[in-house]
Amino acid sequence: MTAFSDAAWQRTARLRQAIDALPFNTELAAGTLSRARFQDYILQDALYLGQYSRILLMAGVRGQDSETLRMFGACALEAVAVEQALHERYLTEFGVDPKRLADAEPSPDCLGYTSFLLATAYHEPWEVLVAALLPCFWIYWDVGTRVARHAAKDNPYRAWIDTYADEAFGEAVRTVIGITDKAAHATTEANRTKMMTAFIRSTQYEWLFWDGAYQQRGWPAL
User: Fold this and answer.
1) What 8-state DSSP symbol labels residue 222?
2) Are 65 and 126 spatial neighbours (Cβ–Cβ below 8 Å)?
3) Residue 97 has pLDDT above 80, yes or no
4) What's the whole-model pTM score?
5) Distances in Å between the alpha carbon of 75 and those of 37, 134, 171, 192?
6) Tens of pLDDT, residues 157-215
7) Distance (Å, whole) CA 44 – CA 127
8) In whole angstroms, what separates CA 159 from the centre of its chain?
9) How far apart are CA 127 and CA 181, in angstroms?
10) What confidence tier does 66 reach under pLDDT thresholds 50, 70, 90?
11) Could you tell me which of 37, 107, 110, 220 has the fewest CB atoms within 10 Å of its CB?
12) Between 52 and 209, where is the model more confident?
């Protein structure tokens, strides 16, 4: 039987190509992405991380063994430590006090993505939750390594590129892929179908998140 991760990666091939071709990612790779767009992205990504790290812990607690709890707990701590440091670096550079994040409002795309993940954590089987969490790991690793191959050393977004192209991050991605494949193999066909739907939906939200940052998409005015 084809591994779930292989099937999911193939199912989302066209969408992932569209993510690679988004102006946000092509301009980030070229180092020409506007400061304003990147600032909006970093702010929203920091808000997203606050929720995502909590959902990772929920995935660990809901897992079937202590190893799963340890792995997701470690991923949550790593996400908070490494990505928070990245966010704080850029927010400080932009003159935005990181402490003001508590007062910031999530964009429609950020709120939609985290709400979907939270709903999955509370209402769907554990296997479906793991599948929903995987794209955030895997697609960032894929984009980060792809951008790293072409970006100039003096790219102003080099810290972002290096974070997601780092081999330690890649190792975490491979671990989550392995857990997801194991979960898919052990569960029912009905749950595997739900897992695929969740993986696709999260991949679609990844597209929306980056596109929303580039378009600086916000809420309709009152």
Assistant:
1) -
2) no
3) no
4) 0.93
5) 28, 12, 11, 24
6) 999 999 899 988 888 888 889 989 999 999 999 999 999 999 999 999 999 999 999 99
7) 27
8) 17
9) 10
10) confident
11) 220
12) 209
The gap from C-alpha 98 to its chain's centroid, in whole angstroms, comes to 20
What does the pLDDT read at residue 44? 93
Q: Is 2 helix (H, G, I), strand (E, B) or coil?
A: coil
Torsion sign across C-alpha atoms 211, 219, 161, 3: negative
What distance lies between CA 82 and its chain's CA centroid?
A: 14
Q: What domains are defined for the chain? A: 4-215 (1.20.910.10)
Nearest alpha-carbon partner for 17 in 207, 196, 149, 174 = 207
- DSSP state string for 76-134: HHHIIIIIHHHHHHHHHHTT--GGGGGG----HHHHHHHHHHHHHHHHS-HHHHHHHHH
Share of the chain above pLDDT 70, in %: 94
Please answer whether residues 60 and 77 qualify as being in contact, where contact means their C-beta atoms are separated by less than 8 angstroms. no
Cα separation of 104 and 101, whole Å?
5
47: exposed, middle or buried (Cβ count in 10 Å: 0-12, 13-18, 19+):
buried
Contacts of 164 by beta carbon, 8 Å cutoff, 6+ apart: 140, 141, 143, 144, 145
CB contact at 8 A, 2 and 128: no
C-alpha closest to that of 162 among 71, 89, 93? 89
| pLDDT score recorded for residue 92 | 82
